[in-house]
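Render this sequence as a predicted structure.
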Amino acid sequence: MRVGKGVFMPADVHAQQRLKDKNFRMGEVVGVQVRRMREYWYHKMVHAFGDLVAQNIDDFAGMNAHEVLKRLQVEGLIGCTCIPLRTETGERVDYYVPRSLAYDEMDQAEFEEVYGAFCQLVVERYWPSLEPEQVAVLAEIMGDYIG
């Protein structure tokens, strides 16, 4: 959110879409936690990366940036928490839960590590003609383009 005169407003199209997805009604009272965000440009770029993947890799067609990021987290076990479970037969299985990329859940250093792992995974599995750094540059350009 961006601070206006006495109000908070969506900071970009991704924030607008996330609010829209919540199906809030005009005048509805909701609870929020207010905190300063970490480096905005990096958050914007990782979502531009998600859009880049959705728009250019057929396996992600129709997904939004957030869905792309969560899927990549699980596929690459990137920024995930492992929960060991036992089946009814006693067999151990690992269940991976993608951790939140939100500002208050992941510090900048870990966020940068996760983003680098996203770029590496996309190159290894989906876009082998590029290097991870090239994917990051494309996402940065796309982030500049979309606002």
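Summary. Residues 36 and 103 are 8 Å apart (CA to CA). The longest helix spans residues 108-125.
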